[in-house]
Structure formats: structure tokens, C-alpha cells
Amino acid sequence: MPRVQTEPKQRTLPWLKWFALSATILLLDQLTKLWIMMEFSLGQSLYVNGIFNLVRAHNEGAAFSFLSDAGGWQRWLFSVISIIVSLIIALWLTRLPRQRVLEGLALALILGGALGNLYDRLTLGYVVDFLDFHWGNWHFAAFNVADMAISVGAVLIIIDGLFFQGSDETDDSSDATAVNTDKK
């Protein structure tokens, strides 16, 4: 009886690459925040060019300083939310089909960013922000590497949902139809 050769199974778990990306985002975020905290005092700013400054800012709230002056309870609320969302995303990544690359990339970016800001909240009580874009006297809310990763991840989730989710479902259903037709 001839031996049937099969393709070798992949030895790594497909979601490890997503966790590695999340860990890289977390590390990059923390290293940049550490540098800012070592080089700048709170509120200190360095003019870089006509639209960008480096600045050390502390955000005790959420995006755009939402609830930053709420008295301290928001630290724990946002920490609990970050933990729950991070656990959901981690579980989602472990169950994500291998072909869902854009979705995996988006989720990994969001997870890394969420963990970066969570670490700040738990250890410092606030999130360190340092990227300050401005136009004239108008300044966009200062942000950090974690915030960038979360924002890019959110945009990629939207793009994936708008342009790729439907095509995957169609492809899966046509494959299922072809299999069912072959069995008849």
C-alpha cells in the first residue's frame, strides 16, 4: 500500500505572531514613555516644527481627557474596562482563522495599545502622553504610541468589516455549496 504524503503541520500556533506584535507595541510604548519621563518634567514642551511638539502630559481620564477630573475613581473604571477588553481580544485572537490577517493585525494593535495604557494606569495612576500636534494656537489632544496603535487598529477593523468580511462569508458559503454539490 503506497504511503500518502501529507503537508507537514505548522509547528507554531497561528496567534503567536499576533501576541508578539502586541508585546512589541507594549514595549515600544513603554520605552517611549520612559524616555519622556526621564527627559521632560510635567508640562515641559519641546518645539520640533510648525505643527509638532514633544510634551510631557498626564491624562487621568480616557481619550481626549474624558473624565480626567472625576476624582480618581475613573482610574479603576478604565483599568477594569481595559482588562476585560484585553481578555476578550486575546481570546478572539486565539480563535481567529489563519486567513483573517487584517483582522488579526487590527486586534493585535488594539491589544498592545490597551495593555500599554493599562500598565500606566495601574502603576502611575495616569497615562503618559507626549505627542502634541498643533496648528497655530489649536492643539490636538496629546497622545502616545499606545493611542496610535489603538487608533490604527480601530481603523483597520472598520476597513476589514466594510470591505473584507462580506467577501470571506461569500467565499466560505460558495466552498460549502461546492462540497455539498460534490457529495450528491
From TrEMBL:
<feature type="active site">
    <location>
        <position position="147"/>
    </location>
</feature>
<comment type="similarity">
    <text>Belongs to the peptidase A8 family.</text>
</comment>
<feature type="transmembrane region" description="Helical">
    <location>
        <begin position="139"/>
        <end position="159"/>
    </location>
</feature>
<keyword id="KW-1003">Cell membrane</keyword>
<comment type="pathway">
    <text>Protein modification; lipoprotein biosynthesis (signal peptide cleavage).</text>
</comment>
<feature type="transmembrane region" description="Helical">
    <location>
        <begin position="76"/>
        <end position="94"/>
    </location>
</feature>
<dbReference type="InterPro" id="IPR001872">
    <property type="entry name" value="Peptidase_A8"/>
</dbReference>
<keyword id="KW-0472">Membrane</keyword>
<keyword id="KW-1133">Transmembrane helix</keyword>
<feature type="transmembrane region" description="Helical">
    <location>
        <begin position="12"/>
        <end position="28"/>
    </location>
</feature>
<protein>
    <recommendedName>
        <fullName>Lipoprotein signal peptidase</fullName>
        <ecNumber>3.4.23.36</ecNumber>
    </recommendedName>
</protein>
<keyword id="KW-0064">Aspartyl protease</keyword>
<keyword id="KW-0812">Transmembrane</keyword>
<dbReference type="Pfam" id="PF01252">
    <property type="entry name" value="Peptidase_A8"/>
</dbReference>
<dbReference type="GO" id="GO:0004190">
    <property type="term" value="F:aspartic-type endopeptidase activity"/>
</dbReference>
<keyword id="KW-0645">Protease</keyword>
<feature type="active site">
    <location>
        <position position="129"/>
    </location>
</feature>
<keyword id="KW-0378">Hydrolase</keyword>
<feature type="transmembrane region" description="Helical">
    <location>
        <begin position="101"/>
        <end position="119"/>
    </location>
</feature>
<comment type="function">
    <text>This protein specifically catalyzes the removal of signal peptides from prolipoproteins.</text>
</comment>
